[in-house]
Amino acid sequence: MVLTLAPVFGAMGCFSPHRGEYQVSQGVSVAEPSGEADQLWEAVQETLRRGRFPLDRVDRAAGVITTVPENSQHFFEFWRHDVATTRDAWEATLNPMRRWVEVSLTRADEGPWTQLSVVVHKERLSSPDRQFNSSGAAYQYFGDSLPSTTGLARVTEKDDRWLDCGRDLAMEDYLLRAILKRCPAQVAWTTETSPGS
Known about the structure:
By secondary structure, this protein is α+β, with helices and mostly antiparallel strands. It has one domain. It is built from four helices and eight strands, in the order H-E-H-E-E-E-H-E-E-E-H-E. Strands 1, 2, 3, 4, 5, 6, 7 and 8 form an eight-stranded antiparallel beta sheet that branches. A hairpin with a 4-residue loop joins strand 2 and strand 3. The longest helix is centred in the first third of the chain and has 16 residues, at 35-50. The two termini are 34 Å apart. 24% of the residues are buried.
């Protein structure tokens, strides 16, 4: 069994994130309020919904839409699309990961929206190691009846922590392009890019 799995895990280690530049924000020139602003605002929400990111804060006055943290898709969940690279799909399959999105439309004073930015936050679950005193304990791994290796009597959900893993630039690029494709509003001028990680 070990010999059979070794090439699979070895190949997974060869995946590397896309190197290059990602588009994470787009200059826009949209008067607010206007019909174009309505279309852009709806395009952002629809893109997030289609990506299966549940909406949390929708604040048009501040120009901010955020989502609830959502567990990231595993490699076999082909019907979902909340990771943008093969490496990220394998990472979420082997380690519990979650992502949440923050979209902002900025403007100076009461003027038009001038910048559309997408930020995707990535987090990894950290849970204390559990003791395995028998082969039957493996069936209780995700429960709360096993003690920890550090002396806790039981490991429960309150002992879990979500660790910040930075931004997911590839997913930011994907979502921004999806928003622009869905929105007929006029987009213009500057484009901010960030190097891949």
